[in-house]
Amino acid sequence: MSIKENLLQIKSQLPNHVTLVAVSKTKPVADLMEAYNAGQRIFGENYVQELVEKHQELPKDIQWHFIGHLQSRKAKLIAPFVNLIHGVDSLKLLHEINKEAQKNNRVIDCLLQIFIAEEESKFGLDEDELNGILRFITQNSEIYKNIRVIGLMGMATFTDNQNQIKKELVHLKSIFDKLKMLPKTQNLQPTTLSMGMSGDYKLAIECGSTMVRIGSSIFGVR
Ligand SMILES: *Cc1c(COP(=O)(O)O)cnc(C)c1O
Question: Are residues 110 and 150 in contact, defined by beta-carbon separation less than 8 angstroms?
């Protein structure tokens, strides 16, 4: 199947409240243009340099999401244009994004990444760390006024065990539900739960995802 066919097929399966991020890392701009011409406007990239180059080359009405692990010193490279940063997992990084957003006169939306998997290699916060960061930025909202935490992101363990994946996704959803109960501030406006990839997006939607990040099912294997 073509990229267009893959994309339309996936979109037909998504409920209206679920946003599709087409994960285009390592794929050539021609592939992104094929998805663009089929109507896709939100693309997710993992590598800063690649994101910067694709942003320069491709149409300006694309919304770019950074979904990789962002190093603080590279925040300035994407701050002028990025629409959403998914994988924020430290106060240090939030601080840097806020600083660079301020320089660009913007407010940058961020998702805090929660560690839900059993693997050692995955990045992310535990619930205590999450609450510590939230307390700090909401109590210092005068300083942190160029970021807006709009929700959470997580990745389940890479396994065939559906029960385990489900348990992890449900856990993330429960943390998101608690987040939504907190008093809203300028910089805390939770609406978005980014979970689900090619292998588990249907399950993730059943478990309450509002944003899925799908790469290989659209663009083919990397
Ligand atoms: C690569 C990647 C995806 C997409 O993975 P697929 O299995 O190709 O759909 C989603 N989220 C993150 C964080 C990724 O790095």
Answer: yes
Q: Considering only CA atoms, give the Rg of the chain.
A: 17
Query: What gap in Å lies between CA 149 and CA 190, rounded to an integer?
Result: 7
Q: pTM score, two decimals?
A: 0.97
pLDDT above 70 covers a percentage of the chain that reads 99
Domains in the chain with CATH codes: 3-219 (3.20.20.10)
Mean pLDDT of 48-55: 98
What ligand 1 atom has the least distance to the C-alpha of 217? 9
Q: Atom 12 in ligand 1: which residue has the minimum CA distance?
A: 67
User: What pLDDT is stored for residue 119 in this prediction?
Assistant: 81
What are the C-alpha distances in Å from 35 to residues 22, 29, 83, 93?
A: 8, 10, 18, 31
CA-proximal residue: ligand 1, atom 10 (nearest): 213
Which of ligand 1's atoms lies nearest the C-alpha of 219?
8
CB of 40 within 6 A of ligand 1: the answer is: no
**Would you say 48 and 17 are in contact if contact means Cβ atoms under 8 Å apart?**
no
Q: Report the atom number in ligand 1 closest to the C-alpha of 21.
A: 10
Q: Is 22 in the pocket of ligand 1 (CB under 6 A)?
A: no
